[in-house]
Amino acid sequence: MIPSRYGPVLFPLVMTFFMAGAVSLLLTVVNLGLPPDFLLRWLANWALAWIFAFPSALLAIPMARRIVGWLTAVRG
């Protein structure tokens, strides 16, 4: 079992794995249709998307938390 202290890094790692896969699948289908080499093209696009998405998420998550905190703060 992985120690819970790695959670702040593992969450965006796993989340971006799925999100990059879904978005790259959609964009690959939209731009190419379903050519014979679709799977290889999609996997290449997925890898590229994930390489970009993971560090982006590490930077974006703290900002998103602050924005959500600001939007949901009780004002009085």
TrEMBL record:
The keyword Transmembrane helix applies. The chain crosses the membrane at residues 9-30, 42-61. InterPro entries: DUF2798. Keywords: Membrane, Transmembrane, Transmembrane helix. This is DUF2798 domain-containing protein. The lineage of its organism: Bacteria, Pseudomonadati, Pseudomonadota, Alphaproteobacteria, Acetobacterales.
